[in-house]
Design a protein that fits this description.
This is ATP-dependent DNA helicase RecG. It comes from Cellulomonas marina. The protein contains 2 helices and 6 strands. The chain has a 5-stranded mixed β-barrel with strand order 1-2-3-5-4. 20% of the residues lie in helices and 40% in strands. Strand 2 and strand 3 form a beta hairpin. It is α+β, with helices and mostly antiparallel strands and 122 residues long. The chain has one domain: OB fold (Dihydrolipoamide Acetyltransferase, E2P). The longest helix has 16 residues.
């Protein structure tokens, strides 16, 4: 590691350090696309950490909405017809697969298949 890289790492904010860790974890899980590289209306696999979970009804239908952060951006995951999903909680690492699209300026994936992954240190 060069002096410049050491200095940059020492001066990095907590958010930058977490983003670097998430990008590294995404590479380790393999075959995952970074959120900022997701093409519109394309099937993809993304790995990251859940930052928030919300019950947000859509047109009278219950829906669980979660924000998945992978270090490059945030992907909104929406499960329609659900009020809660066991294991989907802030801090949980997930690997999701599904059709990614852009809606209202946000990357969204509806009813993705998911795999719960171990939290760091577990």
């Amino acid at each position: 590691m060069t002096l410049k890289e050491k200095l940059a790492k020492a001066l990095a904010s907590r958010a930058e350090i977490e983003a670097d860790e998430e990008r590294a974890e995404s590479v380790v899980t393999g075959a995952c696309t970074p959120v900022h590289d997701l093409p519109d209306r394309c099937r993809a696999t993304v790995s990251g950490v859940v930052r928030a979970v919300t019950l947000r009804p859509r047109e009278g239908v219950p829906a669980v909405e979660a924000e998945l952060y992978d270090g490059s951006g945030t992907l909104v995951l929406v499960w329609l017809g659900r009020r809660e999903i066991a294991g989907i909680e802030p801090g949980r690492r997930l690997r999701v697969e599904g059709m990614a699209c852009e809606k209202g300026g946000r990357r969204v994936m509806y009813n993705p298949g998911y795999e719960l992954r171990a939290r760091p240190g577990e």
